[in-house]
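Exercise: predict the structure of this protein bound to adenosine-5'-triphosphate.
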Amino acid sequence: MSEEKKSLNFLEQIIEEDLANGFDKSDLRFRFPPEPNGYLHIGHASSICLNFGLGLKYNAPVNLRFDDTNPAKEEQEYVDAIKNDIKWLGFEWANELYSSDYFQQLYDWAILLIKSGKAYVDDQSSEEIAKQKGTPTEPGTNSPNRDRPIEENLELFEKMKNGAFEEGSHILRAKIDMASPNMLMRDPIIYRVLKKAHHRTGTDWNIYPMYDWAHGESDYIEGISHSLCTLEFKPHRKLYDWLLDQIYDGGIRPKQREFARRNLSYTVMSKRKLLQLVEEGHVNGWDDPRMPTISGLRRRGYTPAAIRKFSEVAGIAKRDNVTDVALLEFCVKDDLNKTAPRVMAVLNPVKLVITNYPEGEEEWLEAENNPEDEHAGSRKVPFSRELYIEREDFREEANKKFFRLTLNKEVRLKNAYIIKGESVIKDEHGDIKEIHCSYDPKSKSGSGTEESKRKVKGTLHWVSIQHAVKAEVRMYDRLFSDEAPDGHKDKDFKEFINPNSLVVNKNAFVEPGLQEAKPGDRFQFQRLGYFCVDLDSSHEHLIFNRTVPLRDSWAKIEKKG
Ligand code: ATP
Ligand code: MG
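Solution:
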């Protein structure tokens, strides 16, 4: 689709409207504001693609702002991982900023609020405060501290800052309206005491600003024109605007607008739940290839292009919805189909002996790297008398629909010859140990002979035993066996973990060229799926991760849609 033909999403429409009403295009400015309390996931990727996409579209700066106002949960490790993931996705931020950079400014503004009678220190217990909050249908009641004199508020707030009070004993509240139908407007907390070291400001502060106070004011400091967030913040918009009203002093006035969170079937997305999976050892870390994190998807073999495409195709919605994970799998397959070199690997090997092929002989046969890419070229793969093929590709007896190898029938070996099944040798348990076949020496692929053009129903992949390289293959599947693991009222999401989400195969064989493959390299194992080299892989011990099998369920869904 060309850029012009694409219809605008509703956020772009809002921006276009602002521009039509005279907003200066050069004043457009966006931000992506992660809290560094975990790794980014595929939902964040949508927000990243949205914000950075708008930046590219309007040639506007996009800030990376770490929303680091809760030292209890935030760490430098997460900051580094987030930066790495955004870069990997292919985006560049204009400025790397931190809400904690604004702690002094936010504090100064809070004093302004107190001085204008718009904020007060409350030292009631949290139970007391909760009781006064009211319900959505009943107004709350005013705190007895609501009319505390300004001087006293200033004094107490300074003491809070200096560490004179314990956590939970004092808060600063905005003085708005305890009867507001919007519960968030009922004198919300804007500062709390927290005696925790912060990953950037150390022990400088004993009080930390709440999200609502920090976010909009940070947007204002940075001159953000459109502050895009997920739907759960919609009721916060009124508060966002009220707080801005108190300190607004000219310049760009940021505008909060909301879009639906990206939800994905067969997984969970909240960082709290992902952290549980990591901490309780259900997965091997944040970058486990089964995790919906960007680092997990990367390790699984996903490409940045596939994730960007997914975000674009899934789109930006106004209402909550769940995107089928099959769409994500479709996007990575579509991309890898164009870019991943084809190779041969046998995952469940059985020995095939070509009885009329000369012993001790080997040939290096021409094999095309990628029929979907004319620049991909070709390589040579070794062929010899003894090969591995997939155990599933042979049956002693088979019906007409079995297009693979059976006795007295012909199939083609990919890039090589036509063979015909002759006999089998079994072990003492009756399992097939060797399959014997004959080959037609004139049928070599691409040789141009009549025999090479002969049509046979099936084509099998193979590797030459003598040349094959042993590899470990980690067969990953969906982490959850339920479509909505966290959608069950009476069951914990972890009850739906798929016990077969990882099956390790240490007995696979790959063609010898793969010996040199490096972590992150991606391939199509012909007829099997897409695989990538794991971070733990080495020259001596090759490890591949299955990104996604070739056959998919998405085709069906597409037809329905
Ligand atoms: P989670 O609930 O998964 O822990 P969060 O909202 O607390 O996520 P933040 O680090 O605060 O995570 O999010 C950074 C930005 O990414 C915010 O603007 C947030 O709205 C957006 N975002 C987070 N999750 C999603 C999602 N699933 N889909 C789209 N955007 C998201
Ligand atoms: Mg958050």
